[in-house]
Design a protein that fits this description.
Layout (H helix, E strand, L loop, with lengths): L4 H69 L2 H6 L9 H14 L6 E8 L4 E4 L3 E3 L6 H5 L8 E5 L8 E7 L8 E7 L1 H9 L6 E5 L5 E4 L6 H14 L3 E8 L2 E9 L6 E7 H4 L4 H44 L10 H40 L7 H7 L8 E9 L12 H15 L9 E3 L2 E8 L4 H23 L3 E5 L9 H13 L1 H4 L4 E3 H4 L11 H12 L3 H15 L6 H21 L3 H6 L6 H13 L3 H42 L6 H8 L3 H12 L3 H19 L4 H7 L5 H12 L3 H12 L1
Parallel strand pairs: 15-16
Antiparallel strand pairs: 1-2, 1-6, 2-3, 4-5, 5-6, 7-8, 7-11, 9-10, 10-11, 12-14, 12-15, 13-14
Length: about 750
């Protein structure tokens, strides 16, 4: 066998190297990062102090400016000037304001421009000149400060890409309703110089409360990095703190302080790579020490791996010489080959065990089937029970026979019956302990289970089996949504007599026809002790016969329910119930055949075809509940019979009515009467008159008169017969009687009718 022997040895060597090297590497990494962390903490502390000093310096300058402006606008000159209109007469006042404004601005205060506006007089003074509102191009931009919510406020000009910083004060002070405004603009370059004064590392920035950049100490952070920084600060919303964020692709430490004076935000951003620049020498020393320790560990790992590998190599060689070459996928190393061989042996063992288990299961079911059929010898039973692991110390034996009540109203079809019975057998196996039953088998579309126990009284026996049967019914209904009935046999003392119990359990299920679906039937409770002579209700069957014959559907349904109730009222043998149902079926089908005439047979499906007749009869014998029986008789037997009888009656009425109509058309000019027609057709006039009226919607005499009237109108128009001759032809004894009848029906005399229609004809 050719094995890549170096693979396992290499992995063993590599594992030893990792065990020795990983701690060294981890210690080195921790040392390096710990040193870097200490350096970073020191830098952060220094940056925090620097940022605080910068904030104090900037705020001191801003407060000085605030104080200087406050003194200026509080002077009587400025206060009084706010009530003056713009006029040449007040030029001296304007000039003094301008001079004082210039003197109040020094180089140290970093003021870029100062403007005083008189809102009522609509004029103003700034560093360069004295102006009126008409001279200002963007007056709205200047006057918007009037609406500020505070009488003194630092604001940022939003209209510029690089916001300017302005101090706005309302005149007079401490008044929200201003007569004038003082606006001081700070030079951004002066603010930037204050930020850069003490900054040695990183960048310092100042933002307003809306995170707009006011000034910065340098341009190290690009615009994209600044946007990332602002987004992170808005997300955190912290007034003071320190956090790390990636700016322009570099990890950066950010320190934030918020001013309580004017809500400005002071930010210090320091790149981590600048902080750790001095700690890289520590990293190189740590790396050198780690490499040295790894080399020493590698030598020791090589020596130890050779010693550990020796016995594995011998074991692999022994297995290879015993079982031959392994598959290609098992040649990667010795342990894979050994595992493959062991797995193959275990699979072979499992396969043999599964085959043996399957054969044992089939043998156990075959044993139970032979036991139920009575084919097992009593002398062989103890050995069989022991061989298959069944208990042999039961005091009684019984059989549970389970059948599905119906599949028509369930989600299953008839093709699923065997599979469902198998599922029920599994449920029974789970619910009844193995020590109280034998394996279940299928017999006559029933699931048969032999059970046993140690109870000694009939009450205990019945209570135990009834509880088990109800549990099985509930479980099957819950999981399979099926209704089942269970037949239970009498207990037997000998297992060899279990074939009798199987017949009794199946016999008990026959009485489900009386007790309905979801029944638990003990053979002793349902089988009658004495057979009754008959359970057939003759009188009720005769009344049902008459109701069906007369097509009285409601009464027929009531009598059918009564008839079936009387059949099952008596406790009788199930065969007697079946014979009574067959007899009732025969009576009704004979009615359907006896009442059908030859003409009806030609035009309707009067008789069931032989195949259908056999299917109906077989279905009758398969009915399992009174509800099914009532529905089947009503829909399958009575409804078709009534339909055929009704069709026959309608055909008969139409035939008689047509015969009477033909007699009227042929003999209208004679002394024709209903009695004469009835005698000729061999019917009683009292039967024939209503029959004709129902079919034609008019009485015999009215139809005869109408037909005679139609013939008279035809003769008046088409012939020259005299009116007297027409009256005589239509059997009127007096022409005046005919004329009165004609006028009554047509609102004109026969002569007028002839003149009218003959004139129209011309």
């Amino acid at each position: 066998m050719k094995i890549r022997s170096s693979n396992y040895f290499t992995r063993l060597l590599m594992y030893s190297l990792l065990i020795g090297s990983i701690p060294v590497i981890i210690v080195g990494i921790i040392s390096y990062f710990k040193a870097s962390s200490i350096v970073q903490d020191k830098v952060n502390q220094s940056s925090m102090a620097t940022l605080q000093q910068t904030q104090l310096r900037v705020e001191q300058t801003l407060k000085t400016i605030d104080h200087s402006v406050t003194q200026y606008i509080s002077s009587p000159l400025v206060v009084n000037a706010m009530s003056l209109p713009y006029s040449a007469a007040h030029y001296q006042v304007y000039n003094e304001m301008y001079q004082n404004m210039v003197r109040s601005q020094t180089f140290e205060l970093t003021i870029n421009n100062m403007t005083v506006v008189n809102l009522k007089g609509k004029w103003g003074v700034e560093n360069n000149n004295i102006f009126t509102f008409d001279d200002v191009r963007n007056l709205d931009h200047l006057l918007r400060y009037e609406k500020l919510p505070s009488f003194s406020l630092w604001v940022t000009d939003e209209d510029k890409s690089s916001p300017s910083i302005s101090l706005v004060k309302k005149i007079p002070l401490n008044s929200l309703k201003a007569n004038g405004l003082a606006i001081v603009t700070i030079a951004e370059s002066q603010l930037a110089s204050l930020l850069a004064a003490d900054n040695q590392i990183g960048s310092i920035m100042v933002m307003d409360k809306d995170y707009r950049l006011l000034s910065r100490s340098d341009r190290k952070i690009q615009q994209s990095g600044f946007e990332q920084l602002v987004a992170e600060m808005q997300r955190r919303n912290e007034t003071e703190g320190q956090f790390n964020v990636e700016l322009d692709g570099d990890n950066t430490t950010v320190i934030v302080r918020k001013s309580s004076y004017n809500d400005w935000i002071y930010v210090s951003a320091i790149f981590i790579k600048d902080i750790t620049r001095d700690s890289r020498s520590i990293g190189w020393v740590t790396l050198f020490v780690c490499l040295l320790m790894v080399l020493i560990t590698g030598g020791l790992a090589l020596l130890g791996s050779r010693n550990f590998y020796r016995p594995v190599r011998k074991l692999a060689a022994t297995i290879a010489s015993r079982f031959g070459d392994p598959p290609d996928e098992a040649r990667t190393d010795e342990f894979t080959m050994i595992g493959c061989r062991l797995q193959s042996m275990l699979q072979t063992e499992s396969r043999l065990l599964a085959q043996l288990t399957g054969q044992v299961r089939e043998l156990k079911q075959f044993f139970v089937m032979k036991l139920i059929r009575g084919e097992e010898k009593e002398s062989q039973l103890p050995a069989r029970l022991k061989e298959y692991g069944y208990h042999s110390d039961w005091n009684w034996y019984a059989v549970l026979a389970i059948q599905i009540d119906f599949l028509e109203r369930s989600r299953y079809s008839e093709n699923d019956r065997d599979l469902l019975l198998f599922a029920i057998a599994n449920i029974v196996g789970e619910l009844i302990p193995a020590e109280e039953r034998l394996d279940s088998v299928l017999l006559e579309q029933s699931q048969i289970t032999v059970v046993g126990g140690a109870v000694t009284t009939d009450v205990e026996y019945k209570n135990r089996l009834f509880a088990v049967a109800e549990l099985i019914q509930r479980t099957v209904l819950q999981y399979l949504k099926l209704h089942i009935s269970i037949g239970i046999s009498r207990p037997q003392n000998q297992l060899v007599d279990i074939s009798i119990s199987a017949k009794q359990a199946l016999e008990a299920l026959r009485y489900r026809i009386r007790f309905g679906a979801e029944s638990v039937l003990f053979i002793d409770d349902v089988q009658p002790e004495e057979l009754v002579s008959s359970v057939f209700p003759h009188r009720a069957a005769k009344e049902l016969y008459d109701a069906v014959k007369l097509a009285e559907r409601t009464r027929a349904d009531e009598l059918l329910e009564r008839c079936i109730g009387l059949i099952f009222e008596e406790q009788a043998d199930w065969r007697q119930y079946r014979m009574a149902l067959v007899r009732l079926y025969t009576i009704l089908t004979e009615l359907g055949q006896s009442e059908i005439t030859a003409d009806t047979k030609k035009n309707t499906d009067a008789e069931f075809p032989p195949d259908q007749e056999k299917q109906l009869f077989d279905r009758l014998l398969d009915l399992k509940s009174q509800e099914e029986i009532r529905f089947w008789f009503s829909e399958t037997v009575i409804t078709p019979i009534m339909r055929r009888l009704e069709h026959q009656r309608k055909s008969h009425v139409k035939k008689i009515s047509d015969q009477l109509t033909d007699m009227i058309h042929q003999n209208f000019d004679t002394e024709l009467t209903l009695e004469a027609c009835a005698k000729q057709l061999n019917y009683h006039p009292n039967h024939l008159g209503p029959l004709f009226s129902r079919e034609k919607g008019i009485s015999f005499s009215e139809y005869l008169q109408n037909y005679r009237l139609q013939m008279a109108k035809q003769w008046l128009v088409e012939t020259d017969m005299k009116i007297g001759d027409i009256a005589d032809r239509l059997t009127y004894t007096n022409p005046q009687n005919f004329i009165r009848f004609f006028r009554k029906m047509e609102n004109m005399t026969p002569g007028q009718y002839r003149d009218l229609h003959c004139h129209q004809k011309k």
